[in-house]
Amino acid sequence: MASYKRFGAMIDCSRNAVLNISAVKRLIDGLAKMGYNTLELYTEDTFEVEGEPYFGYLRGRYSGAEIKEIDAYATAHGIELIPCMQTLAHFTNVVKLPRFAEITDVNDILLIDEPKTYEFIERIFASLANNFTSRNVHIGMDEAHMVGLGKYLDKHGYCNRFELLNRHLQKVNAIAKKHGFTAHMWSDMFFRLAAHGEYHARGVHVPIEVREKVPEDVALVYWDYYRTQKEDYDAMIASHKEFGRELWFAGGAWTWKGFAPNARFTRASMKPAMQSVRENGIENVLVTLWGDNGAECPPFSQWQNLYAIRRYADGEYDDDKIVAEFEKLFGVSSHDFDLLELPDIVPDTADQSILTDASKLFLYGDPFLGIFDSVLEKHASIPYAQYARKLCAAKERAGEYAYLFETMEKLCRVLETKAYLGIRTRAAYRAGNKEELHSLCADYTTAIEKLAAFTEAFARQWYACNKPFGFEVHCARLGGVRLRLEHCRQRLQDYICGKMDRIEELQEDILPYDPANPDNLLLNDWRRLVSTSEV
Fold this sequence. Notes:
Blueprint: E1 6-12, H1 21-34, E2 38-42, H2 64-76, E3 80-84, E4 104-106, E5 109-110, H3 115-131, E6 136-138, H4 151-156, H5 161-178, E7 182-186, H6 188-194, H7 208-211, E8 219-223, H8 230-241, E9 247-252, H9 263-279, E10 284-289, H10 303-314, H11 319-330, H12 334-338, H13 358-364, H14 373-376, H15 384-397, H16 402-418, H17 421-430, H18 434-465, H19 471-496, H20 504-507, H21 526-530
Parallel strand pairs: 1-2, 1-10, 2-3, 6-7, 7-8, 8-9, 9-10
Antiparallel strand pairs: 4-5
């Protein structure tokens, strides 16, 4: 295998799912077999900080003892466990608690130039130094779009945000160095402030006066998992090299669209990315596996692509050869792992460049409100029953990974009944066909029963991989689907027997969700899926 200083995976342990210790060890075992030598567990607040009892409160945070256990296990397997957290933005859950109001600028961003902010960051680094062997650290600092425009603006007035960002970075880096750490950070804020919010583009150049202020010992991490053309990666790497600092590249194995992974787009984006990495001499690589909006999709769902990405980075681009190697190494078919994305496959938009959240949209879509029915009506033949059969067959061959296939099979079983339920209900209601509505009530019952089976399978998958914290969110979400199905069924029955003369929601005409992009099936945000009202 090709030699890299660090070739690692970054696993999101902040979007409700915190990998349990057993799962982390299984992950380390597999990564070591694949040729990885680095692991970052992305922990915004899910690790213990002495003197901060509300940090990660009720979120399943890792104790100091747990981190030490993981660290020792990783070291024994040739893996460097690098602490990975945030020091500016992405304190999404922290800022919900009153304890942190005094150090919050706006949204999820810390208040720069506030002494108490740096006391807080000091305590974080003290805990990291006590529990991690590595003295490399990922300090985050990405996507702080509104930095300086909240409480900071009220207290200090407007400040050039390049200056603000660099001043904060200098202070954070000084704290990191005090505790013996060498930092790397996401690079996007430098580019966004220079290019009016744009990051991934060719020909973007950060002004030299800004580049020169970045500490020489802070490495930049260019993250990108959206492009399918090598030239796009080449251009951004060239722009990053203008900083004259050590450079990391962070690609992605897509686990953050909902319940299903996206296998084909992962390879379509990461093959050219790794070609660019090799040709441009990048020595530090991360493969990110995020968990946006609930972390429904576990990292093991992208097992085959974690291996494929490593082989692309070695210069091996023959996918058939990589598939054979993976099966020999793990005893499971790479092609079977690809089936895990079936719940999101819409046949007539199944090009590898298309990303969808179809299964999540249709699972949480309301049968009376039909927010996405205008899109679904264009795809009247999503074969969820066929998908379920394929997943069931693969489950029998999957060995220790069978639980992944069972969950996706059960999801397809739900969608086989529920996906078009709202469309059929509205059509029958508008046709005045009470006989059809009566028949549909049985389908509501079937959907409820299938939803219960999926919820059980999803729970088994969750606990096989994660600590229990965070699953309460899915209980609320899936419980809401069940209750809504029951409620809609009852209202249909009341209408059929004459207890009510109309169902107002079904009187409404359904408009395109996104008129500018009427085929859009990509929206991984539960709150916007269930209602246009406040959630």
